[in-house]
Amino acid sequence: MLERSEEIPNHKGIWVFTEQIDGKLKNVGLELLGAGRKIADKLGEELVAVLLGHDVNGLVKDLGAYGADKVILVEHELLKQFTVDAYTKVLAELSIKHKPSVFFIGGTLNGRELAPRLAARLNTGITSDCVDFDINSDGHLIHVKPFGKLMAKIICKTRPQMATAKPNVFKKLEPNWDRRAKIVREEVKINPEDIRTKILGRVEANKNPYGSIEDADVIVAVGKGLCSKENLKLIQELADLLGASVACTRPTVDRGWLPSSQQVGQSGKTVSPKLYIAIGISGAMYHTVGMKNSDIIIAINKDPKAPIFQIATYGVVGDLFKILPLLIDRLKKEVKEVKLRITAKDTQKRIN
Amino acid sequence: MSKAGLKIIVCIKQVPAVQDIKIDPITHTLIRESMPSMLNPWDEIGVEEGIRLREKYGGEVTVITMGPMQAKEAILRCLAMGADRGIIISDKALAGSDTIATAYALYMQIKKMEYDLIICGKISTDSETGHIGPHLAELLNIPQICYVKKVDLDIEKRRIIAHKEADGGIEIVEAPLPALMTTTIGLNEPRLPTLKGIISSKRKEVKVVTAKDLGGSLSNYGLRGSPTFVDEVFEPPSRKPEMIFQGDPKEAVEKIVQVLLNKKLISSRS
Ligand SMILES: Cc1cc2nc3c(=O)[nH]c(=O)nc-3n(C[C@H](O)[C@H](O)[C@H](O)COP(=O)(O)OP(=O)(O)OC[C@H]3O[C@@H](n4cnc5c(N)ncnc54)[C@H](O)[C@@H]3O)c2cc1C
Ligand SMILES: Nc1ncnc2c1ncn2[C@@H]1O[C@H](COP(=O)(O)O)[C@@H](O)[C@H]1O
Q1: For residues A276 and A294, what is the distance between their CA atoms, to the nearest angstrom?
Q2: Helix, strand or coil, per DSSP, at residue B186
Q3: Of A52-66, B10-24, B82-96, B160-174, which gets the smallest average pLDDT?
Q4: Would residue B238 count as lying in a domain?
């Protein structure tokens, strides 16, 4: 087992593993570059994106635009597809060689398999699902994460200080295409025998009829207040009118009303749409940690004491079965009007 | 694989059955004693899968947990479901362990045992890190397959073949045994313990292991052996509502539509 590294001054640099799949960067890596940029500036250290793959050097300019000072690039046939064995090996060797102080990994499914394995290989601490970072007076990273109904600040005594974050928790920087990151190419030996867990094939996922919630601008979310699966029709109709994806709380998943891919919260996904309409949702902390960063939250709940009203931007106390049919009717009319108004404006613009 | 058939180890954890978890004001760790608890649901699935594989290929299922002695209840439930024996690693010196220190203690015990397959849950409902499986696989230097939805073994070739969740679909993967896998909801429907199971569980062995039994330096365990610690806990800041409307549904709907219009949120996409 590797000796634990507590020689803090020897470790420098904020690293972000910027995962790509089929040559496309995962958003969460870019979001963590945004979070890392602040920490790097505070510490006066370099922000480094670590990019693994095959034929992926075209992505380097994106990483620069989104904030990286430097990109460590490792290209190899055997890194084309993510495998936990090959990726752990390469990242561990890079980390032992360059000694970063912080190592962020996005909480995709791959990231959540990789990060804890890598932490154990480096014999260092790791904090999952962070929602904020800061630096304390000793220069340690403060990892902020939900802890029961409270929030916790976690400190890591060893280096690198590893952390994961779910997608949509941190914000990407505005890309600046004039910024260029320095490229450092690294050679790492990988043999086919290093990869013990082999991928034999893939079964493509069916298209999700409820819409992907990670990147939706508008989300209609539903809780146990819906009472039965049949009533989903109402929700779906509202979502269709608003061009929204459908999300839900955990009890609705437990009851089989909606698939777990739509669950928002501590054990589900984190979302930050422009609009989140919470319908029949009580607003338990375990749910709200996953959606409280939405720009606007509208809550509909018949219980005026429901905690969801403490975080809603607009709250409506009332029975969803009375409100939704009226809202749907009203929107059907309104959406048509809005459509007309927009078309009229567009025509005017063209004339001007 | 020994003559006795497959050796399966399932790592299980007892978790609070309530949401109002209590936090020790001084150590900032969970207070687990005297709390209503249950078997972590993902671990229940792990135990079920272990039993099914044993029923198919023969062998033995050992469940193992690290926690306060109260966690023996969770072990007994697994034995009542049909697991063969249990191990509880319990010692004051282990209190305050983070995931690295927990995995280390499990590793120190498991490395002394024979095993073909180790099963962990995808996550536990109280810490929700999902770290332990990959940590443990790494310490034991064996392959890992996380988020398994379907699994089978090729006994002759000593391999595990699994369908696992991946970003954008399901992957079919294969690894040599011994290996570690983590469960997802849907892998199986765990059985309920039968009365016969409950009675026979009382005769099954539950071994208690202390930190000294694990061996190695005590400074590797518990809070001291943990690279991370909770420095502070605080109330999350709340967000103040701009408007709460209580009254006639028709008026409520008007208010909502006004908000959508003002914020230019009604899309013209319908
Ligand atoms: C470790 C752990 C992790 C968890 N992770 C998650 C998670 O990721 N996501 C998650 O959502 N939960 C999670 N939970 C569960 C969470 O604590 C809550 O139990 C859950 O969010 C409540 O869901 P709900 O709001 O749908 O149901 P309820 O709390 O039952 O609320 C239903 C609401 O509907 C309202 N209602 C009923 N009828 C009507 C009507 N006709 N019109 C209007 N309103 C009505 C009621 O007033 C009530 O407020 C987790 C719990 C634990 C312990
Ligand atoms: N104290 C423990 N004792 C035994 N197994 C554990 C313990 N903590 C976690 N595990 C295993 O690791 C899985 C993931 O838990 P966690 O990393 O806590 O989210 C659980 O489902 C268990 O299989």
Answers
A1: 6
A2: coil
A3: B10-24
A4: no
Indicate whether B120 belongs to any domain: yes
B103, B137, B268: residue with CB nearest A339:
B268
Sheet holding B59-66, edge to edge: A198-204, B169-176, B159-166, B144-154, B179-183, B117-121, B6-11, B59-66, B85-89, B206-209
Which has more pLDDT, B243 or A62?
A62
A233–B contact, CB cutoff 8 A: no
| Alpha-carbon distance A179 to nearest alpha carbon in chain B (angstroms) | 30
Structural domains of chain B, count: 1
Distance of CA A96 to the CA centre of its chain: 27
Asked whether residue B254 is assigned to any structural domain, the reply reads: no
Instruction: Name the DSSP class of B30.
Output: B
Task: Name the residue of chain A whose CA is nearest to B253's CA.
Answer: A327
| Pocket (CB within 6 angstroms of ligand 2) | B 11-13, 40, 42-43, 65-67, 99, 102, 106, 120-121, 123-124, 127-133
Domain boundaries, chain A: 8-194, 218-349
pLDDT at position A268? 86
**Is the reported ipTM for this assembly greater than 0.90?**
no
Domains A8-194 and A218-349 belong to one CATH topology: yes
Show Cβ contacts of residue A287 under 8 Å, excluding neighbours closer than 6 positions. Answer: A223, A249, A250, A264, A265, A266, A281
From the list B176, B245, B267, which residue is nearest A243 (CB)?
B267
Domain A218-349 has CATH 3.40.50.1220: yes
Q: What is the pTM of this model?
A: 0.84
B174 touches chain A (CB under 8 A): yes
- For A118-159, how does the pLDDT look when each residue is reduced to its tens digit (9 = 90+)? 999 999 999 999 999 999 999 999 999 988 778 999 999 999
In terms of Cα–Cα distance, which of A105, A148, A149 is closest to A126?
Answer: A105
Domain that residue B23 falls in: 6-220
pLDDT at residue A208 greater than cutoff 70: yes
For the Cβ of A280 lying below 6 angstroms from any atom of ligand 1, the answer is yes
Q: Is B256 domain-assigned?
A: no
In this structure, are residues B7 and B114 in contact, taking their beta carbons and an 8 Å threshold? yes
Chain B residues whose beta carbon lies within 8 Å of the beta carbon of residue A286: 19
pLDDT band at residue A16 using 50, 70 and 90 as cut-offs: very high
As its CATH architecture, domain A8-194 has: 3-Layer(aba) Sandwich (3.40)
Alpha helices (H) along B112-208: 132-140, 195-201
Task: Say which residue, B35 or A32, is predicted with more confidence.
Answer: A32
Report the CATH number at residue B31.
3.40.50.620
Residue ranges of B 230-259 with Cβ closer than 8 A to chain A: 230-236, 238-239, 241-247, 249-250, 252-257, 259
- Asked if A296 contacts A221 with a C-beta cutoff of 8 angstroms, the reply is no
Distance from CA of B21 to the nearest CA of A (A): 6
pLDDT in tens, B196-205: 999 999 999 9
